[in-house]
Design goal:
The complex is a heterodimer of chains A (622) and B (235). Helix content of chain A is 29%, strand content 18%. Chain A is of the alpha/beta class. Chain A has 3 domains: 207 residues, no CATH class; 176 residues, P-loop containing nucleotide triphosphate hydrolases (Rossmann fold); 161 residues, 3-Layer(aba) Sandwich (Rossmann fold), CATH 3.40.50.300. With 235 residues, chain B is α/β, with parallel strands linked by helices. Chain B has a 4-stranded parallel beta sheet with strand order 5-10-9-6. In chain B, strand 9, helix 9 and strand 10 form a beta-alpha-beta unit. Classes of the chains: A alpha/beta (622), B alpha/beta (235). Chains A and B meet through strand 7 of A and helix 6 of B.
Chain lengths: 622, 235
């Protein structure tokens, strides 16, 4: 889409009359993203619900361009550039990408120019140089939003409330024209295409009567009359009412049932949980409550298996009681899926939105949101409290994009809780220097110390693998476990090694499987391991987190590989001794040259055990 | 120098050999792992639609023509409308993913990954004019570009917009019978000069052949001497 700028104000090309130069939004140096709020304008609550705290592309918003523009003109909507083009360098406003290799350009049908687009967040909908990002004005910003609202009537019926078109639209109507280029009118949801005919201006003016026909159809009636343009002969819409009309209210229901947190009529929030916290958990939980109440940042540094989730309950309850919107974000979909039922169970009175690629809660505006960090890219200044799980889970570059997503999703005044078992070097340093607020849970809930890994030199294991052999001490260690029927989780650095070693291991025992990230049978294999149908599971680093087998020994072969960072090794060691029944487990790093990462991982675990002992969080060994 | 794969983003180093000094460098956009997952169509194919006959049950083959094409050719309305189709790759899971990202997600850059193969294949075919299958205006707006045109442009060709769509519902939502029974969806543009020309239609996928045959029919009726087609994938 192209825009003109008239008195610092954006005007979309299809709504222009007369000859005014137009540009792709990213090429416009200066315009006002946000206009002064008009208290007499009555915004569409569905649009508000959809856009509050979000940053969406026009294609994600099933409302007509006219309606969107009226909301912008009256100060309710914000239009921002999707891409920022600086001298020679482009930056994506949604995902923060500025790697020139992850941009490409194409001859764009929408703006008619060679248009740059971001390939990094492409899967969330393409952002190009001519794409605006659309958001709702922040809650409380301008203070007039609530005053300007009409009493909401249609709510209990489950239908969208009545919508009245403000008179102020007609003041701006000189800009409107019944033009034909209606691909431009932001209507990618073709089922939302209206069948109305006639001049759109008159339709706008007769809104009130239109709204009498049916409370939730209003925006359908605006604009988009079928018309032909020379270039696009097929523009006539096959607007068979039978196909389109019924789907529209359905669609709207999903938004309008759930008022955004702004409406502050939250049902009484109560935590339903009768578990008890260990003293370590309790101390952390208190700190979390404090940080959330004060909109502070806090790092919860909890050892693997400490019971992090329970530590959050009190803080979440506090935030919800204060009418705050809470988000728990994690890099992994598995975690979202696992946490959702747990949180729904302990907060039965509220709606919980669960967001991951392909989830159905995409438009659910809930007080408590569980989201993959990736899905956070659609949010903009949405949350009062963000809890970020496994901050360190991905390599640095990915982490950067993730932090960008999180920063954008937070409100300016908001609390931020980081959870991790393995903060990176910088964070550890900041904690020690007193520059970062943090709390540790140095011990597991079962009051046993963490198993301490043993680095063991095993010579040139790769060369031996080449001859279909294993290092003698590795073989011995494995044979001992096999003899004792003790389950083993064996980590290797690469998929290639995985494939090489599996047949060798199967000569020792048949019940051995290998699993890696792209393995389609991943879930099934992990399941068989959990059911004790497998004696050994060989894996790359994907299983370093989250996976819990009750009674296992853990080994790494090739622990000197770069991929085994300090935090990866701490996580790997953290797989052992998780359950109260089997709190111990052997952890061995078989290596061909000891690395700093191994030493640091070992030191970190020893330090946690020491701290736990000093604080009386573990019982003395018998 | 390290390259970055257009599909999986991994970096790889192209193997070094003396050929580097003697031959013009052919840019590679996919890493060897991804490239390998593309399956070129080789061996015996249907004389009309270009479908590999190798894995097809003998009862679905008549001479060197597949049963589908036999059915088309038996219908006097469609006989000889499409002279022949040639496709580059099998429409396997990987290509499906690639094409879906290319056209539905709008990742235009992926056209480059096919450019070299498209160029060589099209150059071997006999034609006067290259005509990409057009999109409806609405679809074109939604995607931002026409994928068939993109394939040609990135391979260095100059496509001619001979056709336009009359009405444009998504083909992929329809069954074969529905597609065949459909009334004409294309017409030849007023200004297009097709009389006596050998035309090569270009599309991303050949599935039932209905789209290409409808386009071919419109062109034949407008006086084209012959119409063949080229597609990236054979479904």
């Amino acid at each position: 889409m192209r825009f003109a700028v008239i008195e610092d104000k954006l005007v979309p090309a299809p709504l222009l009359t007369g000859d005014v130069p137009t540009f792709p939004i990213s090429s416009i140096d200066h315009f006002r993203e946000k206009l002064p709020l008009n208290p007499n304008f009555i915004p569409n609550p569905d649009l508000k619900n959809l856009l509050t705290g979000k940053q969406l592309l026009p294609d994600d918003v099933p409302h007509s361009l006219e309606e969107l523009y009226a909301h912008y003109e009256n100060g309710f909507l914000i239009f921002r550039k999707g891409l920022i083009l600086e001298k020679k360098k482009a930056r994506c406003r949604r995902c923060g990408n500025s790697d020139p290799r992850l941009f490409a350009s194409y001859p764009c049908f929408r703006c008619g120019e060679k248009c740059l687009y971001c390939r990094k967040c492409l899967m969330m909908g393409r952002i190009s140089a001519c794409t605006p990002l659309i958001s709702w004005r922040e809650e409380g910003d301008g203070g007039l939003v609530e005053n300007g609202r009409s009493p909401q009537t249609g709510r209990s019926s489950g239908m969208g409330p009545l919508l009245q078109k403000p008179s102020s639209v007609s003041e701006t109507s000189h800009l409107f024209e019944s033009k034909s280029a209606f691909y431009e009118s932001v209507s990618s949801f073709s089922k939302m295409q209206p069948s109305s005919s006639g001049n759109q201006l008159s339709v706008l003016e007769t809104q009130p009567s239109a709204s009498e026909k049916g409370p939730s159809k209003n925006h359908l009636d605006i604009g988009n009359q079928p018309s032909r343009s020379e270039n696009h002969p097929s523009s006539e819409k096959r607007a068979s009412p039978s196909q389109k009309q019924p789907s529209a209210p359905e669609n709207r229901l999903s938004y309008s049932e759930d008022k955004p947190s702004g409406s502050h009529d939250l049902s009484p929030v109560s935590l339903v949980w009768d578990g008890t916290l260990s003293p370590g958990q309790k101390a952390a939980s208190d700190k979390v409550v404090e940080a959330i109440a004060a909109n502070d940042e806090l790092l919860v540094w909890a050892v693997c298996g400490a019971g992090k989730t329970e530590v959050l309950f009190a803080g979440i309850e506090r935030a919800l009681k204060d009418g705050k919107r809470v988000c728990i974000a994690t890099p992994r979909t598995d975690v979202v899926l696992e946490l959702t039922p747990r949180l729904k169970k302990v907060f039965p009175g509220i709606k919980v939105a669960s967001l991951y690629g392909g989830s159905e809660d995409r438009h659910l505006n809930a007080p408590l949101t569980l989201s993959t960090t990736h899905q956070l890219l659609r949010f903009y200044k949405a949350f009062d409290t963000v809890i970020l799980d496994e901050v360190d889970a991905f390599p640095y570059t990915v982490e950067e994009a993730l932090q960008h997503a999180v920063r954008k999703a937070r409100k300016d005044e908001s609390a931020m809780i980081y959870l991790t078992a393995t903060p990176n070097r910088t964070w550890q340093r900041e904690c020690r220097a007193g520059k970062r607020a943090y709390v540790t849970i140095p011990a597991r809930y079962h009051r046993h110390p963490l198993p301490v890994p043993r680095p063991v030199w095993c010579g040139n294991w790769q060369k031996l693998l080449g001859k279909n052999k294993l290092p003698a001490n590795v073989l011995k260690w494995l044979n001992e476990r096999i003899a004792a029927q003790k389950q083993v989780l064996l980590f290797v650095p690469k998929i290639a090694v995985l494939e090489k070693i599996l047949p060798i291991l199967r000569r020792l025992h048949p019940d051995i499987e290998a699993v890696h990230a792209e393995d389609p049978d991943r879930k099934e294999k992990v399941h068989r391991m959990r059911d004790k149908k497998l004696l050994m599971l060989v894996t790359t680093t994907i299983l370093e987190r989250g996976v819990t087998f009750p009674n296992i020994d853990v080994a790494v072969l090739g622990a000197e590989d770069r991929i085994f960072t300090e935090s990866a090794l701490v996580q790997i060691a953290g797989r052992a001794g998780r359950s109260a029944r089997y709190p111990k487990g052997d952890v061995v790093f078989f290596h061909y040259g000891r690395t700093e990462a191994m030493n640091k991982a070992r030191k970190q675990i020893l330090a946690m055990n020491k701290e736990a002992a000093e604080k009386g969080l573990i019982d003395p060994e018998e | 120098m390290n390259r970055i794969c257009l599909y999986c983003n991994s970096e790889w180093v192209p193997p070094f050999s003396w050929a580097v000094f003697f031959t013009a460098e052919v840019p590679e956009y996919l890493c060897p792992d991804c490239k390998e997952r593309l399956e070129r169509i080789t061996g015996k194919t249907c004389g009309i639609c270009g479908r590999p006959l190798e894995h097809l049950d003998a009862k679905y083959v008549s001479g060197n023509i597949c049963y589908d094409c036999v059915r088309w050719e038996e219908d006097p309305e469609w006989k000889g409308v499409l002279r022949e189709n040639r496709s580059l790759y099998l429409y396997n899971a990987f290509l499906k993913e690639l094409i879906s990202r290319f056209k539905f997600r709008g990742d235009y850059a992926l056209a480059k990954a096919f450019a070299e193969d498209v160029k060589q294949a099209v150059n071997r075919l006999d034609y006067d004019v290259l005509a990409p299958i057009p999109l409806s205006g609405e679809r074109h707006y939604e995607r931002g570009f026409n994928q068939s045109e993109a394939l040609l442009v990135e391979a260095g060709f100059k496509p001619a917009p001979l056709l336009e769509r009359i009405h444009g519902e998504k083909q992929s939502k329809k069954s074969r019978t529905e597609r065949i029974r459909l009334k004409q969806v294309f017409r030849v543009k007023k200004e297009a000069d097709v009389a006596g020309k050998k035309i090569l239609l270009v599309d991303d996928i050949y599935t039932t052949g209905s789209t290409l045959r409808h386009a071919a029919k419109a062109l034949k009726e407008a006086g084209a001497r012959s119409v063949s087609s080229f597609t990236l994938a054979r479904g």
